[in-house]
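[Primary structure, fold]
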Amino acid sequence: MSIMNNFIINFCLLFTTITLLFLPFRNRPRVTPNTNLNIRLALGGIAGLIAVLLMFNSIQIDVARVDLRIVPVVIATMFGGWLSALVTGLIIIVTRFALTPVEQIDAAILSSIVIGLFIMTISIVRRYARMTLWHFELMVGIGIVYSLPAIYLLTNSWSTFIEISLAYIFFNLIAGLVTYHLLAELRRHFENIQYQQKLAMTDALTGLANRRRLDDSLSLVGSAEEGYSLILIDIDFFKHVNDTYGHDAGDDVLRQLGTTLASLARPDDLVGRYGGEEFLIILPNTSALDAKKIAELARMTVARNLFPTTLVPDLQITISLGIAHSSSSHTSLEALQQADKALYRSKDTGRNRSTLYTKQFELEQA
């Protein structure tokens, strides 16, 4: 009964630490053997830490230490490949030697050999494995097969070996089963959170950034020392499109314009719908001259393309654009206000044009 109780404690510790220590991965895509090196190293370190906590609560039978440490090794291998498993294994080996008295050093050496062979084997198996319960449990089973001879050599009686082996096999297989389902459930939960976060930052109609995300990005870009530019865009006579062809046609135009603007954006640019028929492009590290070129490219692209709707297959639209450049001496709100003034200048002077904000605007208003 004491062995069973100790395994249950190990069992609970395993699932608690998995839940807590894997939280840093909640905003990241699923970790695979092809993931960024630093992420795989971090995964190996976290799995190693879980294994160490299990080892500090392991069951001492004669000179053998038994616990559920093979499960974190399988986690590291299954998700991060051989590199993550190697990091986890090294942490386990160092800890095993640190916990072992000098007179029992042979037990630490034997355990290290078992861990080494285990990692080598499941690293090979991982190349052909898929993320399934069967393959996860197969790796756990390989760990059990490697561990049982070592447990036999480190226990003093056959009856002790039988007693501990039955508990060891049972709890490791159950731990593998529950761990797999726990990790799958955590991944589903994390992906749902990511999806909800994306919805909260995405305009439902166009699929672009919404006002909330644009405002958040403005606050971040405004803290940079390098200059940045903003392009505020408004569809000319959009009310006429809605009144004449209906709001469905207007929605079609908004979607197509969003796609057009996104196709012209550079990798670091952020395109979003700022509200109604207004769009905003945030251009980090971009001079006023370059922003003007981008604005003109967008204006001409829209003017020469069709924006077909169900009722009007040859609908054409134009856009007016206001451009502002800022730096650390201006707040993002000031830059946005300047872009808005430049946009109204474009609309007041004939529409279908882009205007760059200059200090002359303030002098004229004065």
Notes: The mean pLDDT is 88. The chain has two domains: 2-200, 211-365.
